[in-house]
Fold this sequence. Notes:
Layout: E1 11-13, H1 19-23, E2 30-33, E3 36-41, E4 44-49, E5 52-54, H2 60-76, E6 81-85, H3 93-98, H4 106-122, E7 126-138, E8 141-144, E9 154-158, E10 162-166, E11 171-173, H5 176-192, H6 197-203, E12 204-216, E13 222-232, H7 236-243
Parallel strand pairs: 1-5, 6-13
Antiparallel strand pairs: 2-3, 3-4, 7-8, 7-11, 7-12, 9-10, 12-13
Helix pairs in contact: 2-4, 4-5, 6-7
Amino acid sequence: MPSEKLPIKVFVKCRPLLSREEQKGSRRAVKISGNKTTLDVGGKETSFVFDGSFGPDVKPNQIFRDTVEPLVEKVMEGYNLSIMAFGATGSGKSYLMTGNDDNPGIVPCFNKTLFRWIDDLQSKQKDFFVTATFLEILDEQMVDLLNPHSNEMKVRQHPQLGIFVDGLSELVIRSSDDLAKYYEQGNRARKMGASDVQAHRERSFALFTLSVQQKDVNTGKMGVNSTVVMADLAGIEGVTNYKR
Length: 244
């Protein structure tokens, strides 16, 4: 396994004003300059420096290209990767991770880029085995979004596998189309299970996890393995309320 240590990086995305906020005459209180984010509250400015800052007009696919795309190569080298969207409900976390047909989010962009790498490396006598899970955690209850069921699931530890969720479906992925289909399927299941989507997202965590295993075609020798976790976390206010 690789010995290089990769740092934790934090990026900030400022959402645009909502139409109802514009109608009320609200003004933007955030200024973006390079990697600096400045808040203007009551005429008093406070600045914060991050690894990168993105204004309201920057699309999710551009954020992917600037922040995540360079890390896909590291995944192919055997590094694990976690991407987490964290913020208040309504701040654009789910849109950043999922996007739409015109502006795909980080997860769809990652999926396509991953399989471009796989297609290229397969031509160099490498074989890949990719699986996916999609887990939602709500009020300490776990839901299998790829195969919803009522069976109890438990977090367990295995000497080789490490931490895993017993009872969580793990589906084999053969193409980027497979990956897109299962991700969309899981998101539909997440919405269908919520009578109040806003309140639901204040308290729910969604974790889309990919396992990538490599093998040398000529020798049959197993190569490096890597795990990618892409998480749409609960709203900040939901976490605060839960802790109370």
